[in-house]
Amino acid sequence: NAGVTQTPKFRILKIGQSMTLQCTQDMNHNYMYWYRQDPGMGLKLIYYSVGAGITDKGEVPNGYNVSRSTTEDFPLRLELAAPSQTSVYFCASSLPLSGGANEQFFGPGTRLTVL
Amino acid sequence: AQSVTQLGSHVSVSEGALVLLRCNYSSSVPPYLFWYVQYPNQGLQLLLKYTTGATLVKGINGFEAEFKKSETSFHLTKPSAHMSDAAEYFCAVSEGFQGAQKLVFGQGTRLTINP
Question: Do A100 and B34 touch (CB under 8 A)?
């Protein structure tokens, strides 16, 4: 199993450009998540999905969009890049809760700089 | 809303010394608590988690943590530090016990091991 994979690893965008961060998992996990990590800060949840076709906002969704057409893929879209979106983005996945706290598995991250 | 506070953004210990990373949380319901580790340029990996039952939780790489409800704490310890323990450590609390498990993270503690 490759686990959670993210592409690209690095990207530099100009203000106003758009891009899609890709995330794929091969563990057949129903739940997937997007986080951003700013320097000296913990991770903050952007969006999450409980299954194909179902997504919901997290703590910091403004400026982002997501879709979930398959169980495996959960892309994150930035429509009009702004310097405030300079961050490291992590995708994660997990199984549904079943009476316990299930581990979230994280991808290696995408480092995005907006200039 | 739940929150997590990690005391000390940077902790430095000598190889072989005790490691103590502090975490306090706020929650109106019994929480699920987690410690994750992030090695340079990698995603997060689960060290250990507390759900219910035994309050002393053992994790990977010799780490353990104790849930103390009266102190709303979940401090991470390791009796003897190893050079390979140098990393960033995040404490997290689970928000919501049904559906997607949304994690709220502390700001992280960078652990440095001195030879």
Answer: no
- Identity of the amino acid at B93: V
How many residues comprise chain B? 115
B4 contacts B106 by C-beta, under 8 angstroms: yes
pLDDT at B65 over 60: yes
Residue A99 has pLDDT above 60, yes or no: no
Q: What is the pLDDT of residues B103-113, one digit of tens each?
A: 899 999 999 99
B-chain CB neighbours of A102 within 8 Å are 101
A97, A98, A105, A111: best mutation site toward chain B, by most B Cβ within 10 Å? A97
Place of tokens 């809303």: B1
C-alpha closest to that of A61 among A44, A39, A49: A44
Closest chain A residue to the Cα of B108, Cα to Cα: A42
**Which residues of chain A make contact with B21, given a CB cutoff of 8 A?**
none
Q: Write out pLDDT tens, residues A33-91.
A: 999 999 878 899 999 998 999 999 999 999 999 999 999 999 999 989 999 999 999 99
C-alpha distances out from residue B27 to A30, B7, B40, Å: 26, 17, 30
Nearest-by-CA chain A residue for B4: A42
